[in-house]
Amino acid sequence: MRRSRSPVGELAVVGALLAASACAIAFVLLYVFDEFNTQLLGLSLGLALAFLALAAIVAGKKVVDQRTSVEERPTLVEPEVEQEVAERAVGAREGVSRRKLIVGAAGVAGVSVGAAAIAPLASLGPNGVSAALKESPWRKGVPLVDDNDAPLSADQLEVGSWTTGFAQGADKRALGTAVVVVRILESEVFENPQWAPQGIMAYSKVCTHAGCAVSLFRYPTYEPTSQPPALVCPCHYSTFDVRRGAKVVFGPAGRPLPQLPLSIDAGGKLVAAGGYVGNIGPAWWGVRKGT
Amino acid sequence: MGLLAVVCGAGAVYGFAVGPATAQKGTSVNPRPAPPPTSAAQRQQIDRGRSLFVDGCSSCHGNDAKGKRNVAPTLVGAGAAAADFYLSTGRMPLSNPTDEPTRSPPAYNRQDIDALVAYVASLGAGPAIPHVDISQGKTNTGLTSFTLHCAGCHQVGAAGGIVTGGVAPALNNEDITPTQIGEAIRVGPFLMPNFNAQQISDADIADIARYVRSTSTPDDRGGWGIGHIGPIPEGMIAWFLAAGALLLIARLIGEREPE
Lengths: 291, 259
Fold this sequence. Notes:
The structure holds two protein chains of two kinds. By secondary structure, chain A is of the alpha+beta class. Chain A contains five helices and eleven strands, in the order αααααβββββββββββ. Chain B has a two-stranded antiparallel ribbon with strand order 1-2. A two-stranded antiparallel ribbon of chain B has the order 3-4. The relative contact order of chain B is 0.13. The interface between A and B is large, with 38 and 42 residues.
């Protein structure tokens, strides 16, 4: 009844499994030594999974017998025969059987692909990044510049207008660099007016919920019949009341946007009057309040 | 470099003219009086505008256009740009003052709108109707400026979006004129912030308007824009297609050989 199995197929399965393992190990090594080369990271992990799939397909098609049949078990009447069969069964385990080879290769591939899947977990959570989260280029007197490095001046912003500012000379892609600068009526700055000269105030551009760029600003033409001014995050519509220190008035964010105290220098340019008040960056479980 | 200097110069003049401390969007703390009408025809048009205003607008904005508390804002210093924007896009008059003004067929014809605009402009100095010449604009720099200033709410394909408390209207509509785009940028209607000439120059407005006009006749690769709301629905479609292909492959792999 048994079809002769193809040794070529078995070798192909073993080869694909070992290739998958090699790609997965390459992924782990790349993750450890060249973390930001995302092209190679994706290529190695993708190839590992593709080789696993190839091994499964070849094993299914060429190695495992797909026919279903029932073989009647002969009744063993003589105890000597039974003994002989048992000895043969034990003896067959010696040496490297085809089954052992394939199971061994699958084990190697499983362990290395599993390691590749687990390794990136090291990037999650506060371990090792909490210091980076607190890093910010803002100190007292650091000037605000626009995206072309031109200094931002106070008279550039009218009431009801907004822009994105950066710390002069800092890496614009760093988490702590970008701020949203808005101008509202001075009489509507209900909290910490000393940080908001002429009603101009700056908040971290990184949403405290999931870390999106806060890129929506609403300012009413006529407040009594619409909504008060607010910054809104486009990802989950967390809404921050800029009149009250970016207090959360809607959405999933758990804490206000950290405010950057501002002052206006002798030349009318906007400068920081200190560092952020509060922790920048998104929240994760257990530190939703960002303390 | 020379052009840049001219643009910056224009921005400085604009900033000076508006003054550093404007009270409400588009209106100054102490609105300066508008220049007096120069001709009898102009005076006549303002008078006609006033009578149209009393008929159609004064129930909310008041007979003297100084607004009604908790109902509607003053129009002193709102300027021609705001009046022309709200009237030519049919956002005003509004049947219920607490509704969000949305684009609809204009309630007045062009002559009546011109008269009302002349009346509102005569109340106090405010932003004038910008002259937007899109033949001077560049679509690609317009896309860059649009992405920087507008796409947060209106989406990069100008298909519109939501801010809490309001709707950012779709702009990929060929009825929207370049002048209305320029007016909206300077005035900041409803919940939209306003942008002065130092943030978005007149040249930038021509670029942005040209880009926005191009979004009403988009070049959809593959023939289907999927709502023009960007990469998320496009990615969803890719997932669905890939899931179908994977199911098909799994079915082929798992097929039993005949006995």
